[in-house]
Amino acid sequence: MQVQSMHFKERAHASLGDAQLQYNLKKFKGKFVSARRSAITELDDFEGTRDAGRAIQPRYLARDVRA
User: Fold this and answer.
1) Helix or strand run (H / E) with residue 36
2) Dihedral (CA of 48, 50, 55, 59) sign
3) Whole-angstrom distance, CA of residue 32 vs CA of residue 26
C-alpha cells in the first residue's frame, strides 16, 4: 500500500490547472455560502447555537472512543 500523501503537492499542482474542477469548486462555493446563509436565518439564536457548539467541542474531542 502506497502512502497517498507523498503525492499531495504533485496532485494539488495538477488540479490547479484542471479547468472543470476549478469551475465546479466555484459553483459549489456559491451554493455552499447561499445554503449556509439560509440556514443561519432559520435559527432563532445562531450565536447561542454557535457558542453551545464551541462549549461541547473540547469534551467531544477529548472523549475516548476505544470502547
Assistant:
1) helix 19-42
2) positive
3) 10
Place of cell 449556509: 36
- Are 15 and 21 in contact by the 8 Å Cβ rule? The answer is yes
**41 grid coordinates:** 436565518
Task: Give residue 66's identity as a one-letter amino acid code.
Answer: R
Q: What is the pLDDT of residues 6-61, one digit of tens each?
A: 889 999 999 999 999 999 999 999 999 999 999 999 999 999 999 999 999 998 88
Cell triple for 32? 455552499
User: Does the reported pTM lie above 0.90?
Assistant: no
Cell of 53: 457548539
Residue type (1 letter), 17: G
Residues 43, 49 contacting (CB under 8 angstroms): yes
